[in-house]
């Protein structure tokens, strides 16, 4: 782990959980893998206090641990992935609110505040809030007359919005939301796998495989390859299935018992995963209330990638095709459990062949588009029903595809010739936008040209497109268009000298020389010396410029970690200037009543601090988007 990444993680833990937790977490970062006595000696904390702090860190997925079966010694490690996920807490709540409504966002926020929690406790918390709210309402009616002309409305609104589940109407509604989040895998059953260090998980899996499959030992490289493959398969089983019943979800069938209850259809289409704002809370939902759940951060990464690809499509193709693309990506998310599987054996050819590329049909996209964007005008960007050389019937497969689509279409109720014509026209428009996405040089989607007649998304290649786009955007902001041109030339042609770069770019050598030097200083390109003879004189050497994408990503990752760390330090420093007024506004008797309880000068100071804090948080979120593209979508770099 690099210096700047460690610094960032410690600041995140300190900002959210306080000095005591950050002290223990910082010690674990520096000690790596350690025991309780060593940790107590390093931090100087009492054992009782240290144990309580470790419980908080483990509860919130900031520390992983394992107890050896032979010696009975427990080892602790800092979970850097769990610590970094703190940055995305707000983004996770926002994503769930946009997809499934405010109630889902509030459930996610509650789960994040506790790390992991049984479903029974979520329901119990909601019932307690509703009971308290009912008592307050009865007391208000006894002591105060009914308000007229809006009097007293502010106090009621403050009470409701300060509630954890203010947007949830009933317990049935809450159950429906929890079930929907489980169906969409936004909530995940907690398992023992998540609490163990990766090293211990690998050692345990390897020992089991060796005992069962290789009792006589390993013989040659083929056995070693088989061992690695079977170890990864066992680790995937522990991570995804938990069939051994060791997880805190009680048993492996807990999640399956929930997922078998499908979300009811509304107007012929599933509500979950598309416009989950319309959760049906009228029906009682069966839930295993003993199930312990946590947020599935990998699904959040998938949702972030969907938005980044949508924005990229919108930049080159426009608003309407980008909306169609967003719907298409949303429709295939159930086929993508995570952006990158670190347990896949990249050296195994069978894994490469068995890699599944998600697919979807035109009908499915059109149906979901009607739910997400019912008022969108699909004619925008189309010229007389033709776009990029594609029109109805232009390809031999389109007519047959249209016939099969019209049979399955449920966007509008049948019964009139006009409705059928509109459905057919809408499918045609959606298909044209899909062809625009397929014809783009970036290849957002691909037509499979198979009997299934579906659209395919090559996500591994699109990850590289996003990474290259992020690098080029950074170079453009730092060095202008000339820097981007140089980067593209070196990426396309390989190692070149200064004269060759100027020839390919139609630029003068004296113009590109300062740009090359500046890009080398910041780590975007490198320079290699090739001597002409054994004398190795500088004047007689050839100098070649080249672009190393992996090294550049690593350098940019560390620079982004450093920027995020400085951003948090700046926020901490700035808060000291407004400490008095911020602490006063955070008091329970003042929160929500700032206009009445604070002076004008204090309100101005508070507004100024909120403006500064918002700017810093926005900048932090943008840098997190960069981290997601460079590290989380592809997973090739970032392990230091």
From TrEMBL:
The keyword Transmembrane helix does not apply. It holds the Pfam family WHD_POLR3C. Its main location: nucleus. Residues 8-65 form the RNA polymerase III subunit RPC82-related helix-turn-helix domain. It is found in: Nucleus. GO terms for molecular function: single-stranded DNA binding. Residues 471-546 form the DNA-directed RNA polymerase III subunit RPC3 winged-helix domain. Residues 180-465 form the RNA polymerase III Rpc82 C -terminal domain. The keyword Transcription applies. Residues 133-142 have a biased composition (Basic residues). GO terms for cellular component: RNA polymerase III complex. Residues 133-157, 342-362, 383-424 are annotated as: Disordered. It comes from the Eukaryota. GO terms for biological process: DNA-templated transcription. Keywords: DNA-directed RNA polymerase, Nucleus, Transcription. InterPro entries: POLR3C_WHD, RNA_pol_III_RPC82-rel_HTH, RNA_pol_III_Rpc82_C, RPC3, WH-like_DNA-bd_sf. Belongs to the RNA polymerase beta chain family. Component of the RNA polymerase III (Pol III) complex consisting of 17 subunits. DNA-dependent RNA polymerase catalyzes the transcription of DNA into RNA using the four ribonucleoside triphosphates as substrates. Specific core component of RNA polymerase III which synthesizes small RNAs, such as 5S rRNA and tRNAs. PANTHER family: DNA-DIRECTED RNA POLYMERASE III SUBUNIT RPC3, RNA POLYMERASE III DNA DIRECTED -RELATED. This is DNA-directed RNA polymerase III subunit RPC3. It comes from Eremomyces bilateralis CBS 781.70. The lineage of its organism: Eukaryota, Fungi, Dikarya, Ascomycota, Pezizomycotina.
